[in-house]
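Exercise 7. Given the components listed, write out the predicted structure of the assembled complex. Treat all entries as one system.
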Amino acid sequence: MAQAVGAQERPGRRLRARLDVTTPSLLGLPVAWLVAFFLVPIAIVAAYSLDALSLDPGKHPLTLQAWHDFVHSSVYLGLFWKSVKMSLIVSAIVVVLAYPLAYYLALSGTKRKYVLLLMLIAPFLTSYLLRVLAWKVLLGDNGPINTLLSTTGVRSADHPLTLIDTRFAVMLVLGYVWLPFVALPIFVSLESLDRRLLEAASDLGASRLQSFRRITLPLSFPGVLAAFLFVFIPTMGEFVTPSLVGGASGYMYGNQIVDLFGTGFPDWQTGSVLAIFLLAVVAVLTAVFARFLQPGEAKAI
Amino acid sequence: MDVALSKNGARLLRTFFALVILFLYAPIVILLIFSFNDSALPSFPLTGFTLHWYHQFLTNADLRGALETSAIVAALSSAAAVLLGILASIALVRRRFRGKSGVSALLLSPLVIPLVVFGISLLLLFHALGIGRSILTVVIGHIVISLPYTILVLMPRLQQIDLSLEEAAYDLGASRLRTFRSITLPLILPAVVSAYLIAFTTSFDEYAVASFVVGSRVTFPIYLYSALRFPSQLPQVIAVAVVVITISLTVVVLAEIGRRAAERRLEAPST
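Answer.
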């Protein structure tokens, strides 16, 4: 910083040539874009939640009424906890499944590890909506799974398994969608593990299980936590998957927000409260775990 | 002796890995099978081979229009996102300034916002400004979503470039712009291409935000979603799904091969 400031105060010829594109002119556009189309919109939602802006014409005093109602409502908070619980279960299962995959790729010494990694991640890079759609087709009462069961005589055609429109379906599909991605941060942290530590432990008489518990697992923990959060944060506000495969029992907090802004009985004030609350929860989580969510953990391939 | 895995452990993990791959690709393969099945319902037993569903979607003007709209939205929004991403990345990597951590947090924050919240935020913004919903409002939203991805791809590449190359250009009298055009841009080009591809696919597939700000001219994901309500459209939707997934898997593999080749080329002189 001192360098840039000093240069502006003493504009030598060569230094001025170097500064002909200033930092503000580089950052101006991207920052302005995010202020106008990211921060200001969020501020507008906050204003709606306080009734400073409203669909009803006329003057409005600021009020915390909608927030008060939200905090004391069993419906919205109940739905929030249900969504948190579903996201927690999905994230935990997916991380537990992804860990051995990442372990195999990073530590088995397989020569084709990057090919296998690409195979694992490739589905994540194809259309999210289409992968959910595939499961909507698969899980239907007259879909491939149920008709396969009835043609093979495992189950009678009159009593198909209820797969679609359940909470289970939502969690299965969310797990399916996120599993490939979650292996990535775990792989990165295992990949950077120094094998000599394991060799040293082995020389000192530790079994593989002991070195796993005392060395590998603790050292890969940041990757595991990052993986967990990468699933947990987006699934908490999920609404596309539950609306496609969840039915009434898979209805989540995100669906409630959408419906409050929908065409049925719009209530933008309550909807804004729900949205800002979710945003605040996510912001706190992100801030608390910021050091685990560094870009270095996220990128890689 | 291997310190990380026993022979049996490796075998076990390999089997598990294969099972997971099977689980990940089976739904796609099943879609592929039913896209050729001569029945309006995706159910067993299979009834015969047909190309009818592919023919049907190829002649479906609404669907083609939606694909075209998404291509336009994706092309515009990713071009803008990459441009903004290049500016921001250069500032974040090459400059020192007050409040840098705050600025980088702002630039990356769209990564973690729940898309449903961002969608309604944009809806309320355009409502407050009296701006009608259209392709343009979707493009505006997609630029915000894609920008952090482009920065995450561009920054590491910029950090790798030897600063002395740029300094040499200044010393030889090149302007900032000239240096960028002749030195920096060619060196970060592979990253620019991957940033563009990532932004493009993100936009092309984006449903959540678009569902709030799209106008009467719908994008492909919006079209798909509404088509799902009509069972008669399901077979051709499955056929489209197969085509789109196949194309994107191919692009992913080609991009990875290209990226590795470019990386090898860039690393060769220095090693």
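Discussion: The first helix of chain B runs from residue 7 to 35. The two ends of chain B are 33 Å apart (CA to CA).
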